[in-house]
Amino acid sequence: MQQTPSTASSTTSSPAPASTAYDYVLDHRPAPDGGAPRRVVLLGSTGSIGTQAIDVADGAPERFRIVALAAGGSNLDLLARQAVHTRAEAVGCAAVDLPTLRRHIGEAAAAAGVTGYDPDLFVGGSAATAVAAWPAADVVLNGITGSIGLEPTLAALAAGHLLALANKESLIVGGELVKRAAAPGQLVPVDSEHSALAQALRSGTYAEVDRLVVTASGGPFRGLKRSDLAHVTPEQALAHPTWKMGRMVTTNSATMVNKALEVIEAHLLFDIPLERIDVVVHPQSIVHSMVQFVDGSTLAQASPPDMRLPIALGMGWPHRVPGAATPCDWTKAAQWTFEPLDEEAFPAVALAKRAAAAGGTGMAVYNAANEEAVDAFHDGLIGFTDIVDTIAAVLEESPDSGPLTLESLLAAETWARGAARARCGR
Ligand SMILES: NC(=O)c1ccc[n+]([C@@H]2O[C@H](COP(=O)([O-])OP(=O)(O)OC[C@H]3O[C@@H](n4cnc5c(N)ncnc54)[C@H](OP(=O)(O)O)[C@@H]3O)[C@@H](O)[C@H]2O)c1
């Protein structure tokens, strides 16, 4: 969902007045790190989140400097061009060898007329983890897809960097393990719903929060019944009505697995019990989520669907980035609608709440089974409703995994992937 950011001049804030009677609500202090730009490590740089993060950094060079990049390797030319463009000091790539990565970067530099650019290179399965711990950094944006983002998440936290987390899977799969690794305030959400919740939560205390309300667009199959869903195609599942995202997250939006993961993410990020987190379908994707307070007040964060806003806020947290995205146009008539989630057609949310409530490695099994089932669906091996049915069946069979450690999580994941693949005929 690309929209042109407003020009800086229209959004530049006016000079701060001297202290006023409103200081208890309006913070007039200048941004504390208003000097050097924040040094950003970008994981998953070639993806939807990654490329938009580079847009954000390009639009606010006084705020952000990309110092390290990592990607999987399916688009090596783009990674090389990004490296040259940002002059990243470190570049990591999972599926490539060192000479190949060096050659691509060399070619990209030559094409751009750049000489003398010679970044540190990391390759192989742990490349993103090494880049996540790049020492000369302030913030790591994890925009990798899937639970493969877990070890980079843990590495960024161990290095003491602020972690702007788009890769919700690492928090959901890692659960308590990731929470224990994070210092207070070290984990900042990038998912638009959780960014919205974080923004609304700023206006009350923990004890004043009654419920979190996570909005869902409803995806391409909103309004369909379970019987209608049996024969929908991968192409239809990828036609998201409001957001343009990668294949996994788009498919997850169609099955509501994405919303299920987001409910668990909200529970882990904000410590609100699962029974006090609701999902409501809001097809316009303008209200990104809401917090209901104990006095009956509900605060919503609203903006046109554009990930650059939560990406910029995540990288710059707690400070807003002027012109990051286009605001709502309040001069035009608009209608926002809200409807309950059809839990019979879309059982993914209820299933995830049960798996998360059981604790341990339940959500690691849920997520791994889903990732395998989504691939099987796109390979034409299973139908659409089989995706969530596969997760349910794999959860049902999953053995008790004992105490929660990184090893037990990875073992549970490997087991779940095998069980899901066997069910899907892979
Ligand atoms: N896109 C959105 O609007 C959006 C919104 C909210 C949350 N999210 C979340 O953000 C995350 C990323 O989503 P996306 O839509 O940006 O996905 P995407 O477009 O599929 O991009 C995924 C990125 O991860 C990289 N990657 C894959 N394996 C890797 C590895 N082993 N090491 C390093 N990088 C690796 C890919 O690199 P190559 O392609 O080069 O292999 C690519 O750069 C997901 O967790 C998603 O749920 C996305």
UniProtKB/TrEMBL annotation:
Residues 40-175 form the 1-deoxy-D-xylulose 5-phosphate reductoisomerase N-terminal domain. Keywords: Isoprene biosynthesis, Magnesium, Manganese, Metal-binding, NADP, Oxidoreductase. NADPH binds at residues 46-49, 72, 75, 167, 169, 246. It is an enzyme of class 1 (oxidoreductase). Pathway: Isoprenoid biosynthesis; isopentenyl diphosphate biosynthesis via DXP pathway; isopentenyl diphosphate from 1-deoxy-D-xylulose 5-phosphate: step 1/6. Residues 303-417 form the DXP reductoisomerase C-terminal domain. Its EC number is 1.1.1.267. Residues 187-270 form the 1-deoxy-D-xylulose 5-phosphate reductoisomerase C-terminal domain. Mn(2+) binds at residues 191, 193, 262. GO terms for molecular function: 1-deoxy-D-xylulose-5-phosphate reductoisomerase activity; manganese ion binding; NADPH binding. 1-deoxy-D-xylulose 5-phosphate binds at residues 168, 192-193, 217, 240, 253, 258-259, 262. Catalyzes the NADPH-dependent rearrangement and reduction of 1-deoxy-D-xylulose-5-phosphate (DXP) to 2-C-methyl-D-erythritol 4-phosphate (MEP). Belongs to the DXR family. This is 1-deoxy-D-xylulose 5-phosphate reductoisomerase. It comes from Arthrobacter zhangbolii.
